[in-house]
Design goal:
- This protein is an alpha/beta fold.
- It is built from 22 helices and 16 strands.
- The protein has helices at 2-36, 39-49, 55-96, 106-123, 137-144, 146-162, 189-193, 195-214, 242-258, 270-291, 327-336, 340-360, 373-376, 381-392, 405-410, 412-424, 441-446, 456-459, 466-481, 494-502, 519-530, 539-543, and strands spanning 127-134, 169-174, 177-183, 217-219, 222-224, 228-235, 264-266, 294-303, 308-320, 323-325, 366-370, 399-404, 428-434, 451-454, 485-488, 507-508.
- The radius of gyration is 38 Å and the shape is elongated.
């Protein structure tokens, strides 16, 4: 439609331009004709006899005015048509380009990809489709605001454009997603037809993109670090039409996110089944939130010296069609599709309600609730935690927040700010899965951590594996030096319990004491075993279900 309109305007402009010399020639011819037949002399004699008419002056004025007015009209029309053509060009550009990044937009991308595939088919060459998604971009918007997010997108687009060939096509697909098209048409036939050679070149481009994006961006006078996940599909190996290729690249991109983000993956057929499963889970998760299909189970936390249960860790479960789904199967999905925040909010509310219920029954247990890194990026996370406990009417000291060591390492500056707020509010913080990351002693000393949870992978080898023993002893000694409590996860045997107790570990949890159980079972364990006078150091007799 736009092209037809532009074509009609151009035809009108050419017609009027062609008409100008014709009008001028006609005016000159008419003037010469009047002169040749002495019409002007007769007209002069007549007007002198009738001076009030002065027809000669009128006609001469008309003869002079006609070409001048025509020329002026043609000039005005030409200027109008020029402005109209420019406006048409601007509208066409706006319709095909993203207003923020000035890159090709999605509609233009589809047209360009169609054209590129036609050429590739004719030349028997390959085309690579790279689906580029910025990792955790939503966190930038949530913490720094949308203006900062827009500025980051602009800088990313600019930096990517500066590192590509002229033949490469970069487009903004939407949100924080970009599409890059790499063609092998310009290469010699042997290089473009050989998949390995072509993929080698694509891999180099992909790695260069990842390196480029990892460099800091200056936004509002501060350095912002971000990564990208990239999925790659190849024509004609992974599909022969634009829709299929984009879908396969998108699928590969999600596989890259599953592999830790900040990396790339090529599409393979086994990804399709996995992606279909992921889509089904994500749809079910959205319904699960509305239908309240989540429940909390609680695993006892035990004081190793006395065998006394002092608290519990809250562990979420998803009950779907009567089957219990492990958090390992749905939490990563919830994080990837942005549902972890509402799920996390529900966990905090449910923990607070359970604490209030136990308070009414004089059960003095605390609850340790796991918080994901994405939740900590919420601007109002502190207010949510504090307001939830206040609204339900429980003491903030009864709630302990657990965060993994990996999350702390990933963004220590942001986490430290949240931790300071939690500490000033009286909420305790425990560092989960400790030993799996690379936290330094100086970093731990600066953080308001109240408990280190030794990862189960080190507890498994106790008391036989000397390496595990050395690591666990070092963690316990370090926690003692920093006046931080130590807790061992995954205790499954009496030997592990006794050994950890003897080397100074203060607390523990694991199947040796109890598996995660519903709240009612925790209440039974408390009343049956901890209100009696039998406070012996035999946790299995007290807690085993």
């Amino acid at each position: 439609m736009e092209r037809e309109s532009k074509k009609r305007v151009g035809q009108m402009h050419k017609s009027i331009v062609r008409l100008l010399p014709i009008v001028l020639l006609a005016t000159i011819f008419f003037t010469l004709l009047l002169t040749h037949i002495d019409a002007l002399d007769l007209l002069y004699s007549y007007t002198r006899a009738h001076e009030e008419m002065q027809l000669d002056e009128i006609i001469l004025g008309i003869i002079t005015f006609i070409p001048i007015s025509l020329i002026a009209s043609l000039y005005t029309t030409r200027k109008f048509l020029y402005e109209l053509v420019q406006k048409e060009k601007e509208l066409e550009y706006s319709a095909n380009h993203d207003s923020m990044t000035r890159l090709a937009n999605r509609n233009n991308l589809l047209q360009l990809l169609d054209s590129l595939l036609v050429k590739a088919k004719r030349h028997e060459s390959r085309v690579a489709v790279l689906f580029i998604d910025l990792d955790d971009f939503k966190l930038i918007n949530d913490t720094l605001g949308h203006d900062a997010g827009d500025a980051l997108l602009y800088q990313v687009a600019k930096r990517l454009s500066e590192n590509l060939r002229e033949s490469d096509i970069l487009a903004r697909h939407g949100g924080d997603e970009f599409i890059l098209l790499i063609s092998g048409i310009e290469e010699n036939n042997s290089a473009s037809k050989d998949k390995d050679s072509f993929c080698k070149k694509v891999t180099l481009v992909t790695q260069r993109i990842l390196t480029t994006i990892q460099k800091p961006f200056s936004i509002e006078n501060q350095n912002i670090y971000i990564n990208a996940s990239i999925g790659v599909s190849i024509y004609p190996d992974d599909g022969d039409d634009k829709s299929t290729l984009l879908m396969q690249a998108d699928t590969a991109m999600y596989r890259a996110k599953e592999h830790g983000r900040g990396t790339y993956q090529y599409f393979s057929q086994d990804l399709t089944a996995k992606q279909n499963k992921l889509m089904l889970i994500s749809n079910d998760l959205r319904r699960a939130i509305d239908n309240k299909e989540f429940v909390l189970h609680y695993q006892p936390i035990v004081e190793l010296n006395s065998g006394r249960m002092i608290g519990v860790e809250a562990l979420i479960r998803w009950v779907k069609d009567g089957k219990v789904i492990s958090p390992n199967d749905f939490i990563p999905v919830a994080e990837s599709i942005g549902l972890i925040n509402p799920i996390g909010d529900w966990v905090l509310e449910e923990c607070s309600r359970q604490l209030h219920s136990w308070k009414q029954e004089n059960i003095p247990l605390y609850i340790a609730a796991n918080i994901s890194g994405r939740q900590l990026w919420q601007k109002d996370i502190l207010e949510k935690i504090i307001n939830t406990t206040k609204l339900i009417g429980v003491s903030k000291e009864q709630l302990e927040i657990e965060i993994t060591e990996g999350t702390v390492i990933k963004d220590s500056f942001r986490i430290a700010t949240v931790f300071d707020g939690l500490q000033s509010s009286g909420i305790k913080i425990s560092l989960d899965d400790f030993g799996t990351g690379y936290s330094s002693l100086s970093r731990l000393r600066q953080m308001p951590i109240s408990k280190l949870k030794i990862d189960r992978s080190f507890v498994n080898g106790i008391p036989l594996n000397t390496d595990d023993i050395a690591i666990v002893k070092a963690i316990i000694q370090m926690s003692d030096t920093l006046s931080i409590d130590s807790l061992a996860e995954g205790i499954e045997t009496e030997e592990q319990w006794r050994y950890l107790r003897d080397i100074g570990c203060q607390y523990g949890q694991g199947y040796y004491f109890s598996q995660p159980v519903p709240a009612k079972k925790i209440e039974e364990l408390w009343h049956d075993n901890y209100l009696s006078s039998d406070k012996h150091l035999n946790p299995p007799a007290a807690l085993t279900t």
